[in-house]
Amino acid sequence: MTSIKTTGFTGDTLEIIAFRLHDQEFCVKTTTIREIRGWAPSTPIPHSPPDVIGVMNLRGTVIPIIDLAHKLGMKSTEANERSAIVVAEVHNMVVGLVVDRVSDILTIRSEQIQPVPEVTTSFDKVYAEGIIAHENGMICFLNLARMFKERDMDDMAA
C-alpha cells in the first residue's frame, strides 16, 4: 500500500472547495479561501506575468487576478458571467483566482486523497497535492502554497 504525505491536514477530514476549469475539476482547502465573488473585469497591468490578468479593488485593497487555467498550463479561461473569482490567501498575500465556476464545498476523509500518477495531462504535478476519487469523477487537489512560491508573490506585489 502506498503511503501519501498529508501534511497540513488536521484530523481525519478536510473541507475543500471544488471548481471547474474547462472540463476538469480541481479543489483547494477551504482554509485558504477568503471569499468567492462573481466575475468582474480587472485592470490590466503592463509587463505583468502571463498568468496575471490584472488587478481589482477588493474593499480598498488592490489584489492581483490570476488566470488559474493558464497557471496550470491549460488554455486561458475566457471569463463570462458564469465565471467566478476565488479569493485566496497564499503566503500572507491575497490573490483572486479566475475559475469557470465553483462546483461544491465538500468534506472528505484524508485517506480519499491519492497520489498523482506519474503520467499527467495538462498540469504540473508539483502543484497537485493529490487526486480525489469522487462520486461525480476525479478532482485534482491543488496546493496553492507550492503553486505560488513566496518569490512569485513578491514579484506580483511589486
Automatic annotation (TrEMBL):
Example of a GO biological process term: signal transduction
GO CC field: cytosol
Superkingdom of origin organism: Bacteria
Signal peptide as annotated in the record: none
InterPro entries in UniProt: CheW, CheW-like_dom_sf, CheW-lke_dom
PANTHER family, alphabetized: CHEMOTAXIS PROTEIN CHEW, CHEMOTAXIS SENSOR HISTIDINE KINASE-RELATED
This protein's name: Chemotaxis protein CheW
Annotated organism of origin: Shinella sumterensis
